[in-house]
Design a protein that fits this description.
The protein is of the alpha+beta class. The chain has a single domain, classed as Jann2411-like fold (Orthogonal Bundle). The protein is built from 6 helices and 6 strands; from the N terminus they run H-E-E-H-H-H-E-E-H-E-E-H. The strands form 3 sheets. A two-stranded antiparallel ribbon has the order 1-2. Strands 3-4 form a two-stranded antiparallel sheet. Strands 5-6 form a two-stranded antiparallel ribbon. A hairpin with a 2-residue loop joins strand 1 and strand 2. It is globular. It starts with about 25 loop residues before the first helix and ends with a helix. Bound molecules: zinc ion. The site of zinc ion has 8 residues, from loops.
Length: about 200
């Protein structure tokens, strides 16, 4: 048995992006990004989209996903990206992006419940089990709504590394890159450019 698994998907080698652990909607936007050898789309087909949703505990493994569902998930991703861009730029998004998010919210909203455990009452949400694929999209749209309307929205930033296209939550004001990998890549490129400019 070899120690290296050549079948391991490329994204398992990616460093965690700040905010993805707290917001599934941010992780969704980051399923499309660029690496040195080209564009990566973690939702490129129904099978890949199914795997992503199951990994993020948004869909039971036994529920199949068809091409229409994965197409809707990709459409929601592009709408969220447009909404993040508008929030970061302080502009109004295209009505189409807003409509896509609102349609996902309305398709299969979770039912709010008051749960009462030993530690007291808390708010819970029961997903629409009759429509699991739409329920997953509703949960992602709700997560994005929470992110865009909450205090964390001020920290929403697009990675400044050229071509990266990932979004993250800035832990401090000066942070410009999604990961140290992107930061190092930019610094190396700058150093190379400076050396070239300085050479006779
Ligand atoms: Zn980056």
């Amino acid at each position: 048995m070899g120690a290296v698994d050549h079948e391991t998907p490329v994204y398992l080698h990616q460093l965690p992006v700040p905010g993805e652990d707290r917001y599934a909607s941010l992780a969704l936007v980051n399923t499309r990004f660029t690496v040195s050898h080209g564009l990566v789309d973690l939702l490129e087909d129904a099978e890949a989209a199914h795997l992503w949703l199951v990994r993020h505990a948004l869909l039971p493994d036994r529920v199949a996903l068809n091409g229409r569902h994965s197409g809707r998930l990709r459409a929601l991703r592009e709408a969220l990206r447009a909404l993040f861009e508008a929030r970061a730029a302080g502009t109004e998004p295209l009505a189409e992006a807003l409509d896509t998010l609102n349609a996902a919210l309305a398709a299969a909203p979770a039912t709010p419940r008051l749960a009462w455990a030993a530690d007291g009452p808390r708010r819970a949400a029961v997903p629409d089990t009759g429509n699991p694929a739409a329920a997953a999209l509703s949960l992602l749209a709700e997560d994005a709504t929470d992110l865009l309307t909450g205090a964390d929205a001020d920290q929403l930033s697009e990675c400044a590394a050229q071509g990266c296209a990932r979004w993250f939550l800035r832990s401090h004001g000066a942070r410009r890159w999604c990961t140290t990998k992107c930061g190092n890549r930019v610094r190396a490129a700058r150093a190379y450019a400076a050396r070239k400019a300085g050479s006779p």
